[in-house]
Design a protein that fits this description.
The protein has 374 residues and is an alpha+beta fold. The protein has three domains: 3-126, Immunoglobulin-like; 131-234, no CATH class; 239-372, 3-Layer(aba) Sandwich (Glutaredoxin), CATH 3.40.30.10. 39% of the residues lie in helices and 24% in strands. The strands form three sheets. An eight-stranded mixed sheet has the order 9-16-15-12-13-14-10-11. A four-stranded mixed sheet has the order 4-1-7-8. A hairpin with a 4-residue loop joins β10 and β11. α4 packs antiparallel against α5, α5 (160-177) runs antiparallel to α6 and α6 (183-189) runs parallel beside α8. It is globular.
């Protein structure tokens, strides 16, 4: 928005605003003619995304919009603040590399300049929120490149700490320079825990009325829950606390209990077919399972899948251990055990006590297991 022009030409500016609000469009402009003649547009209200702990089933509206020449025009919903995702009708995969992602409020006019579609390269502008997010992402781009190099093995893992420090510094600089900007909420959500708590405690009240604030509020609640889980995790990881008993259904419909494995070392592997790092960890876990044959039992506990998806994943990845299904309902095992993320691996002694809890696919799990099973 050109504030100077609006100040000089108040009446004309008011008329322009009224006209823009009436149309409230998303304009896609392609640098060159794409192979597809339409785009698939999905949107979900932010209020629905943040209504509860489970967001995968938030109601989504999907439509197909034709491309006219090098442009496509998409109406902005007037139902409330929303998240949009746009993909080409012939996109090869529903991944971040192939969709456009942004946020709108009623009355917004958004410009999306699409430079390429395979993979998707684009720029979103037209509102203070999206302009601010673009500014933040541009500043973070060198950090993102370094993180990718670390992930690909081009930089040592020891470089992560310095990159993370720079990442947070960029976010904090934006927050301090723009205390009431809508994109400040976006920056805060991306902060590490310690600076997050600092800036959340002193944030400007004006941020509560910005589109992404429900995400910030939900993020604060999640971080608080994580602190409680971390305290529970530390309290349980003493080697003297009995593992909570449970009984779940296995792949054949049989009821299986943790008590059935007393006398063996047990690893509870909390996973889901939707979890990339869970899947990446299977080869190493299979090696370990074979190495300690007769001494160790692995119990895979599926979370967040339908039964059909769970059974298909067990077959696809040829998981040789005991596989149990954890229903997605109140009081399930992720609430009984301190599961902070996926995968979570819990080592249980032959006596039935929790020895250690590991979140994520980390080498420390295998090192500790080797120390315990001699």
């Amino acid at each position: 928005m050109n504030i100077t022009s609006l100040s000089r030409l108040a009446l004309l500016g008011a008329a322009c605003i009224a006209a823009q609000s009436a149309s409230a469009d998303i304009m896609l402009n392609f640098a060159e003619k794409p192979s597809a003649d339409s785009v698939v547009v999905s949107r979900v209200l932010i209020s629905d995304l943040t209504a509860g702990p489970k967001t995968r089933n938030a109601p989504m509206v999907t439509d197909t919009i034709s491309i006219q020449g090098l442009t496509a025009t998409i109406p902005v919903t007037d139902e409330g603040d929303a998240r949009y995702r746009i993909a080409m009708a012939d996109a090869p995969a529903a991944t971040r590399d192939y969709f456009i992602d942004f946020y709108t409020s009623p009355g917004d006019n958004i410009q999306v300049a699409v430079e390429a579609v395979d993979p998707m390269l684009y720029k979103v502008s037209g509102t203070p929120l999206m302009d601010g997010i673009a500014q933040i992402n541009a500043a973070l781009e060198p950090c993102e490149e370094q993180l990718m190099r670390i992930q690909n093995g081009q930089l040592p893992p020891t470089a992560f700490a310095e990159v993370a420090k720079t990442y947070d510094r960029i976010l904090m600089d934006y927050i301090e320079a723009n205390p009431t900007a809508p994109a400040t909420v976006y920056a805060m959500i991306s902060l590490d825990d310690e600076p997050f708590e600092k800036y959340y405690a002193q944030m400007n009240p004006a941020l509560a009325s910005t589109p992404l604030f429900p995400f910030l509020k939900a993020d604060k609640e999640r971080r608080d829950e994580q602190k409680i889980l971390e305290a529970k995790k530390q309290a349980l990881s003493t080697g003297t606390t009995p593992a909570p008993e449970f009984t779940l259904e296995d792949i054949n419909g049989k009821q299986v209990s943790l008590a059935d494995f007393r006398g063996k070392w047990v690893v509870l592997d909390f996973w889901g077919s939707w979890c990339i790092w869970c899947i990446k960890g299977f080869p190493e876990l299979k090696k370990t399972y074979a190495q300690y044959d007769g001494k160790l039992e692995v119990i895979g506990i599926d979370c967040g899948d339908t039964k059909e998806a769970w059974k298909a994943a067990v077959a696809k990845y040829k998981l040789p251990w005991v596989n149990l299904y954890n229903p997605d309902k109140p009081g399930n095992l992720t609430q009984v055990y301190p599961v902070q993320g996926f995968p979570t691996k819990i080592i249980i002694s032959p006596e039935g006590n929790i020895m250690n809890i590991f979140t994520g696919e980390v080498p420390e799990f295998y090192t500790r297991l080797a120390e315990l099973i001699k």
